Amino acid sequence: MNANFRGLHVLADDDARWKHDPVAQAEAACRGGAQVIKLRAKSTPDTRALEWARKIRALTRACGALFVVNDRFDLALEAEADGVHLGQEDLSPLSIPAE
Predict the structure, then answer these.
(1) Cα 66 to Cα 87: distance, rounded to the nearest angstrom
(2) Which of these ranges, 6-10, 19-23, 36-40, 88-92, has the smallest mean pLDDT?
(3) What pLDDT is recorded for position 74?
(4) Quick one: which of 83, 76, 80, 67 has its CA closest to 35?
(5) Which of 27, 46, 57, 66 is the most exposed place for a label (fewest CB within 10 A)?
(6) Using one digit for the tens of pLDDT, what is the confidence trace for 44-60?
(7) Which residue pairs from 63-68 have beta carbons closer than 8 angstroms and sit at least 24 positions apart in sequence?
(8) Residue 56 in contact with residue 22, Cβ under 8 Å?
(9) Percent of the chain's residues with pLDDT above 90
(10) What does the pLDDT look like over 28-46, one tens digit per residue?
(11) How far is CA 32 from CA 9, 28, 81, in A?
(12) Any idea of the CA torsion for 76, 46, 93, 98, to the nearest 10 degrees?
């Protein structure tokens, strides 16, 4: 894939300080013309994070933006994200069992 990661990047975050959940944040970002939306779900249970990731994936497809998942290679795969941002302490792709 030849992904274009240029333009406005928006972080849709589950931090309790934010008034809206990450899906609502992503919807607003799409309306605002964001080219990349990244989901960061640090304090959310896996099932909820995956639900958000799938909804945001659908939104980004509809608005033509790229979708990236922060910290979670497994969620990125399940949600068919365009990319994943991994830090040194995050789940390694090597930990995912081969099919």
Answers:
(1) 20
(2) 88-92
(3) 87
(4) 67
(5) 46
(6) 999 999 999 999 999 99
(7) 63/30, 63/31, 63/34, 65/29, 65/30, 65/34, 65/35, 65/36, 65/37, 66/3, 66/4, 66/5, 66/35, 66/36, 66/37, 67/36, 67/37, 67/38, 67/39, 68/36, 68/37, 68/38, 68/39
(8) yes
(9) 67
(10) 999 999 999 999 999 999 9
(11) 11, 6, 20
(12) -100
Distance separating alpha carbons of residues 50 and 95, to the nearest angstrom: 18
Concatenated DSSP letters of the chain: ------S-EEEEE--TTSSS-HHHHHHHHHHTT-SEEEEE-SSS-HHHHHHHHHHHHHHHHHHT-EEEEES-HHHHHHTT-SEEE--TTSPPGGGSPP-
What are the structure tokens assigned to 63, written together?
């608005």
Tokens representing 73 are 């290679």
Q: Are 5 and 85 in contact (CB under 8 A)?
A: no
